[in-house]
Amino acid sequence: MRISSLTGARIAVAAAFFAQGFVFISLTTRLPRFLERWGMDEVALSLLLLMMVLLAGVGSLVAERAAHRTGSAPMLRLGLGLMVVAVPAITLAPAVGFFVGGVALYGIALGLVDATSNMQAVDLEHRYGRPILPSSHGYWTTGGIIAAAIALATGHLSPAVGAFVAVVPAAIAFARFVPRVGAAADGAPAIGAAPGLAPDAAPIPWKPIWLVGAGLVVFYMVDTTASTWGPVYLARSFDAPGNLVALATFPYLVTSIVVRLAGGQLVTRFGVVPLLRVGAVVACGALTLVALAPTWQVAVAGFTVLGAAVALVAPLSFSAAGRIAAGTAADGTAGATADGSAPAEPDRARTDAVIARFNQFNYVGALLGAVLTGFVGADNLRLGFALPAVLVLALVPLAPAFARGALNRR
Fold it and tell me: By the 8 A CB rule, do 114 and 62 touch?
């Protein structure tokens, strides 16, 4: 597929990220209402989130197994379709069993869409030969911002009104994603190789991928803590008005999108390592402010700074993992030819398999953020926010791993 013909696919991928963010934030900003409706406490919610995260991991594994046979686009459509069913099941549930079932189905959909949307974005980045991941994740944030704004406007209404958000993934499921190019290797994969890789394929350098994955764990620990527990924190620790608890998420997303949409330029100007290290230190301060906040307004200020501080970690981690998997040259040319023509076609099966496995780090971080935070802060959520304030500093020594084969062109 020529670069000139990728515009439609790039719009479709952006829309998929938008749908994921829109649905996720629509549900998390309504968590306090769901807790009240079903009489759940922080421990019960932690167990529910544990189930969702584990099933998301299952969905990501399914994407890995299926994408090299059918391509990532059909699996992405399947994930979006499952969301269409899961969201009404959660928001309109007549009994707690239906609610739990809806959360379980959403967990599987979450894993499918997470893995395949990043597969699509990594493939686009290789084809364009310039950073695509920061802006793609920016559209996730855009969807979250709009969802948080709607939650602020409709916070006084029944959680059942949230069923309408299923319209968004329903519409985007029919978009024109990047098609599968070529067939998977006919030979059986080598022992220990990722599914869909030829037996003679170069071994995947997992050590640098694990280092970048550790950074992704840190990010999702922080991000999930803020997005999942932020509204609950404002509601239960400060007794903030019910229609304003989404302010734990809304400004966090606003500052995040500003940084993500400028991500390509920021990386080109300042470099990956300084951006991540400064962001980690600022994030530590922001989370400390949240944990020690005397009022909910001060806590919101902490969340606002936090969004900008960690915004680039996830897109830069998927970008780095994709480059490492594709065997990008150390000079950062991303496979471009010597005469400056379009980048060479990447090994799609190789990168898809690695991105699906790499996506599992997402759920390790989510477990720490959603589940461990809830258990640590069961009696006092301030303690739950103190934990990621310390762990986020791990990004300082991990930052150099993100710069391997960095793309230099904007």
Answer: no
DSSP code per residue over 58-88 = HHHHHHHHHHHHH-HHHHHHHHHHHHHHHHH
Residues 206-263: tens digit of each pLDDT? 788 889 999 999 999 999 888 888 888 888 788 777 667 778 888 898 899 899 888 8
Q: What is the pLDDT of residues 21-38, one digit of tens each?
A: 999 988 888 887 887 888
pLDDT digits (tens, 9 = 90+) for 85-104: 999 999 898 998 999 999 99
CB 124 within 8 A of CB 6: yes
Which residue in the block uniquely carries the two structure tokens 């890995």? Answer: 64
CB 272 within 8 A of CB 160: no
- Is 192 part of any domain? no
- Contact 355/122 with Cβ under 8 angstroms? yes
Q: What is the CATH number of the domain that holds 392?
A: 1.20.1250.20
* Rg (the chain; Cα; Å): 20
Q: Confirm whether 297 is domain-assigned.
A: yes
Residue 188 — pLDDT band, cuts 50, 70, 90? very low
A 10 A CB-CB count for 405 gives 20
Q: Report the candidate in 31, 357, 82 with the shortest Cα–Cα distance to residue 210.
A: 357
- The confidence score (pLDDT) of residue 283 equals 97
Structure tokens at 92: 């309109």
The model's pTM is 0.74
> Domains in the chain: how many in total?
1
Short-list 140, 205, 128, CA closest to 362: 140
Residue 55 within a domain: yes
Identify whether the C-beta of residue 18 lies closer than 8 Å to the C-beta of residue 218: no
Listed in sequence order, the residues at least 6 apart from 254 whose beta carbon sits closer than 8 Å to its beta carbon are 145, 304, 307
Full domain range(s) for residue 341? 8-176+204-403
Q: How far is CA 126 from CA 106, 188, 205, 270, in A?
A: 30, 26, 18, 22
User: From CA 211, how far away is CA 398, in angstroms rounded?
Assistant: 7
Q: Is residue 276 domain-resident?
A: yes
